[in-house]
Amino acid sequence: MIDRLPTGHGPQPVTPRRNAMELAIEVVTAFVGNNAINPRALPQLIRAVHETIDGLSPRVSQPPKPGLGETLTCRECGARLKVLRRHLLIKHGLLPEAYRARHGLADDYPMTAPAHSAERSRRSTRAQPSGWGVRPAARRKQH
């Protein structure tokens, strides 16, 4: 009836590497094993099951790159924050290095949202000429 059956015994675990066609073949194989079906209807059944499974699976998109948004998302709890460093220490007891290692992130993965860093930098640049943000001893040396 079917030329090739999926290899392995029993249902295979659903993993990101399994595609909709593999799942459709597994479902149709189980169905055909327990029900009588006209061999001519088999391609249409496979197609219908595949389309249904493919429609159910969420489309995997690239995660947003850090540096493009107003916030960073904590990979521990999903919180969206401007500054991740303090949150990690208080809520999860993690230092940035441990967090990066746990999630396989690069050593230069930001702990502050880029938009927040840019805003702080802009404010600092604007305030320093008037003496704001400069230590008192340094302010006296300027005069």
TrEMBL record:
It comes from the Bacteria. GO terms for biological process: regulation of DNA-templated transcription. InterPro entries: ROS/MUCR_sf (IPR041920), ROS_MUCR (IPR008807). Residues 108-143 are annotated as: Disordered. Coiled coil: none annotated. This is MucR family transcriptional regulator. Belongs to the ros/MucR family.
